[in-house]
TrEMBL record:
Upper taxonomic lineage: Bacteria, Bacillati, Bacillota, Clostridia, Lachnospirales
Domain NAD-dependent epimerase/dehydratase: 6-254
Descriptive protein name: GDP-mannose 4,6-dehydratase
Organism of origin: Hungatella hominis
SUPFAM superfamilies in the cross-refs: NAD(P)-binding Rossmann-fold domains
InterPro entries per the UniProt record, alphabetical: Epimerase_deHydtase, NAD(P)-bd_dom_sf
Top-level division of the source organism's lineage: Bacteria
UniProtKB keywords: NAD
Signal peptide as annotated in the record: none
One Pfam family, short name: Epimerase
Length: 359
């Protein structure tokens, strides 16, 4: 990807910002155009912190270019102008309204960002070939483990049927995969969808369980553990997710013709998960140990008094478990960061970010 222009949407987000940092660090020279709406779905200061890290890094890399644009991918004119001006070779669409529970109370946000926004990206990719231009060489986009719904078969494979979403969020992500397939077939756009499994780590999303639990415990509030603790999640550390995205970006699905002379869709889907689901109660136990170790919570903290076991929430599923064999076979990569190592890094970051004045 040297000397190429990469468009990253959701660039101030958790995965997007870490991907930008990784590309700047290891590929030079490179031009990266970042887009993010900077909405207040969660604490904007975390997004600003992530962008500040990018600015500091790019200031040390005179050969590379970083341009940040504050705007929504649902703004079609904005997306068209970005493609016309910068002509990206690789597009990584990570901008989306995330979260299962929020989709129950705020469905409009999901339709706007995840459907209309993604449609705008697809249309811009399609028109990038007009007039014989090289255009977009690879569109990589975020899907989600949520598309598997309440599938009973585990681990989840990309060969499984995913026709029964249990949340609007999951439905929009499955729709993204269908839309991308149609555009790959019609316009020969190489596209790869990535089903992410419970991404966590430093400067992550505050709406995720590990972050929300930490906030509540620190505020002396009770944490609710859903399905009475009988849930399993395939927690995937942010660095593993970013490494997977980076490898996939560099190898687009091959363009080729079928026996009928028409293009075979250059289209692929991969899981990126840790391939090792953890019980929710074990996860909470490791989290509390690391919060004490890092000094976020005192050594004598009474966790039992702060736990509340509650039923499953609408839209949730009991287990997520990624089959990552396709990722291993095609890219020689498998996430391997242990939950303890990842939560330790989160706890240390949390202490530094939120407790500076107390130190």
């Amino acid at each position: 990807m040297k000397n190429k222009t990469v468009l990253v949407t959701g660039a101030a987000g958790f995965i997007g910002s870490n991907l930008v940092l990784e590309l700047l660090k290891n590929i030079s020279p490179i031009t990266i155009i970042g887009v993010d709406s900077m909405n207040d779905y969660y604490d904007v200061s975390i997004k600003e912190y992530r962008l500040d890290k990018i600015e500091k890094m790019v200031n040390q890399l005179p050969e590379s270019v970083w341009k940040f644009i504050n705007g929504s991918i649902a703004n079609k004119k904005l997306i068209e102008s970005i493609f016309n001006e910068y002509k990206p070779s690789v597009v990584v669409n990570l901008a989306a309204q995330a979260g299962v529970r929020y989709s129950i109370t705020n469905p409009d946000a999901y339709i706007e960002s995840n459907l209309i926004g993604f449609y705008n990206i697809l249309e811009a990719c399609r028109h990038s070939y007009v007039g014989g231009q090289t255009g977009v060489e690879h569109l990589v986009y975020a899907s989600s483990s949520s598309v598997y719904g309440s599938n009973k078969k585990v681990p989840y494979s990309t060969d499984d049927k995913v026709d029964n979403p249990v949340s609007l969020y999951a439905a929009t992500k499955k729709s993204n995969e269908l839309m991308a397939h149609a555009y790959s077939k019609l316009y020969d756009i190489p596209s790869t969808g990535l089903r992410f499994f419970t991404v966590y780590g430093p400067a992550g999303r505050p709406d995720m369980a590990y972050f929300g639990f930490t906030n509540k415990l620190r505020n002396d509030e009770k944490i609710q553990i859903f399905n009475y603790g009988d849930c399993k999640r395939d927690f995937t550390y942010i660095d593993d997710i970013v490494e997977g995205v980076k490898r996939v970006m560099q190898i687009p699905p091959e363009r080729k013709l079928g026996k009928d002379g028409l293009p075979i869709p250059p289209y692929a889907i991969y899981n990126i998960g840790n391939n090792q689901p953890e019980k929710l109660l074990d996860f909470v136990d490791i989290l509390q140990q690391e919060l004490i170790r890092s000094g976020v919570l005192p050594p004598n903290y009474d966790f039992e008094a702060h736990k509340e076991l509650v039923p499953m929430q609408p839209g949730d599923v009991p287990t997520t478990f990624a089959d990552t064999s396709a990722l291993e076979n095609d890219f020689g990569f498998k996430p391997n960061t242990s939950l303890r190592e990842g939560l330790r890094k989160f706890a240390e970051w949390y202490k530094a970010f939120y407790m500076r004045e107390e130190m």
